[in-house]
Amino acid sequence: MQPHPRLALHGITKRYPAVLANDHVDLRVGAGEIHALLGENGAGKSTLMKIVYGVTQPDAGRIEWEGRPVTIRSPAEARQLGIGMVFQHFSLFETLTVAENISLALDSREPPAQLASRIREVSESYGLPIDPLRLVHSMSVGERQRVEIVRCLLQSPQLLIMDEPTSVLTPQAVRMLFDTLRRLASQNVSILYISHKLDEVRELCDTATVLRGGRVSGTATPRAESNESLARMMVGGDLRECHLTPREAGETRLELRGLTLASTDPFGTSLHSIDLNVRAGEIVGIAGVSGNGQSELLAAISGERRVGNAASVSICGSASGTLDAAQRRRLGLSFVPEERLGRGAVPEMSLADNALLTAHSAGLVRNGLVRSDAAREFARSTITAFDVKAGSELSPANSLSGGNLQKFIVGREVRLKPKVMVVSQPTWGVDVGAALRIRQALIDLRDSGAAVLVISEELDELYAICDRLAVLFRGKLSSVHPTSQMPVEKLGSWMAGEFAQ
Amino acid sequence: MDGGGIRAVSAMNNWPWRLERRAEPSIAMKFASPLIAAVAMLVTGFILFSALGLSPLSAFRTFFIEPVASTYGFGELLLKSTPLMLCALGLSIGFRANVWNIGAEGQLIVGALAGGAIALFVDGLGGFAIPLMLLAGILGGMAWAAIAAFLRTRFHTSEILVTLMLVYIAQLLLSYFVHGPWRDPAGFNFPQSQSFDENELLPLLAETVRVNIAFLIALALAGVAWFFVSRTFAGYRMRVAGLAPAAAAYAGYGEKRNIWLALLIGGGMAGLAGVSEVAGPIGLLSPDISPGYGFAAIIVAFVGRLHPIGVVLASLLMSLLYLGGEAAQIDLQLPASVTGLFQGVLLFYLLAADLLITYRIRRARPDVVAAEAIKVDNPVNVQT
């Protein structure tokens, strides 16, 4: 045991114009410790990690490294100290090899050929097998994450920051990652593990610091806590659970019949002969690691991409493959996309103007003129009904937190009383309270007789709200089974491609 | 979090200045930036005039005050602002929808040709001559822009290149007609058409000025443009397409419809500007009916923040630059390019001011960074 903690933060405060992101945050990470940083979205986790990694500077407070006060002015300085960070979203060049990518990212100049042997060495010694000469575009998301971890390990970090590392991984890949992290910790590397997934934190981490609204709301030994007690520290109250009462499904509302579609993106995934039907009054979930054709499938259903064969997509019995997005909406389709800013909402426009985006058919436009009173009223009632935290209906969409904007978009689409609702990643990056509200809204919609299709990476979520489940892997869809007949082990192996075609 | 951005920044560590995104751009500065750009332009002019050995104050008088000191001069200001305003109003609607019509100059010329053809070859229209000419001008400009719209929506060609190239075709077309078939036989071989008749000229606003009712039409159209952008659903759809194309696709707003609408509006307005010039101060067709109004209108649109009221004010400023440039040629013996220089400087400062609204320049302190790096005697340093 060393006399000083590896990293100690004292009274870190960071104020942005609109919000106090960190308010006198204290944090201690010992050598070889796996330390969880828990908190809802917007709790200040990202800001704190940006400060540790030198991306932003704190307004007040001290950072101590191995007992010495330090100022970290840039990520390069952080790396010099021995701090490495694996980002949630990787920035790798698809057309380059692993070694070339890592060579570009290192602070020192080292030719890729020479680097390759070091990469092989490091990756094998930590149980992270990667081939340095492989092209990145052929790698799965889990493998790409390994590249990022190896990149950090090459610099022999003393502290590794992992930002929501499992959000893109299959359950099996999560196991492998945890093994690696434990091995690193046993070699005296400290790990700061940012997450909002309580099960993982309880399994992996030695200690946890919980943030709420920019302040430390508690520290805990996760193994000694329950999910409920940790959630209370995060949210500051008790949580309701969603409840899905069994009910008989009605007629088929959304039908995909042999849907085959080549991707327009050279690194996208083409869809191969997908069959699926979603009936009135049920929620069907599609699991799978993103990048397996989810965005292509969604675009083909929503009409943002038209399909040559009209019969391969049917909405409420009408062959719709060749219809555009507006025509499909007129048939009763609503859609919540994965990207909220820029697709589900126009960032610079007010919530009232964003209500108009898809709700124009709900009486907000008359004779080609916008009824701004009606648009404001629609936005206002959506804000109230879905408990959206916003200044007013005139606040721009980009002033809302991700979770609140998502509640607004889901609310807007739900209030259009769709016959078919398609939702992608409904609660991605959304805090626990908002996630619950959104899931309940989808269940209510199902109970009112709509057909709901949910595409999500969050398995907990799919199990909580879906009547039936399927898996999408490399553009192929598995058969669909009732949720009760899909144990998580089976789902996990299907997510890795092990299902009969 | 974007790891790539961090790497890019650290790669530039040797450069002491950095651009850093502001947490929240100031709304007030957004409106002030055209004014700041105008002031910076004046300061630059001050330095320029001094460097040329002119008294800056009297040069300023000549450039910016004397041209509009008389009723006639003020009329000229409004007269020259008219085609700029018309073109820029149409362009700004398209620019908001991310449709980059750079060829208003060409649409203006074809509008003038179409309107001029009515004046030259259709007789006995009496009081209907002017409305018919204006209509022909609008349709001519629209037709020219429609070429770009068709190519863009059908073949995905860039409307920036197509509209620009069509400018040169339009200029040659005009040149062909006034040198050839439409040349005035009694015109001593000058490349120009017959003068238009009295009923084919736009009525003047007053006896002593040259500005005509086209200015009032332009003002009225500014109101219409404002109404279109802020109150109609079509205007809303175009704003969405410009601000967030993926959101427009998500909502099912057809991209083609926006492109057609944007180009037809821009072309029609430019065509109207063209016919207003030939049926106004020029009174006939000649090879040089526009000193680049269609191009200057691009600057006007941006200086005016793509907002109709801003465009009205910006077109007056740009008109003053034209008048001042002419006065500077006559009184100060400065070259004609001084007008273009002021236009360019104005746009440059506006773009710079806009950049500084969203970003700020921060001085990184390499000396301190180096000192810290030395202080850190971590064994990891050896490897990196």
Automatic annotation (TrEMBL), chain A:
Residues 7-238, 254-499 form the ABC transporter domain. It holds the Pfam family ABC_tran. It comes from the Bacteria. It comes from Povalibacter uvarum. Keywords: ATP-binding, Nucleotide-binding, Sugar transport, Transport. InterPro entries: AAA+_ATPase, ABC_carbohydrate_import_ATPase, ABC_transporter-like_ATP-bd, ABC_transporter-like_CS, P-loop_NTPase. This is Simple sugar transport system ATP-binding protein. The keyword ATP-binding applies. GO terms for molecular function: ATP binding; ATP hydrolysis activity. PANTHER family: CARBOHYDRATE TRANSPORT ATP-BINDING PROTEIN MG119-RELATED, GUANOSINE IMPORT ATP-BINDING PROTEIN NUPO. SUPFAM superfamilies: P-loop containing nucleoside triphosphate hydrolases.
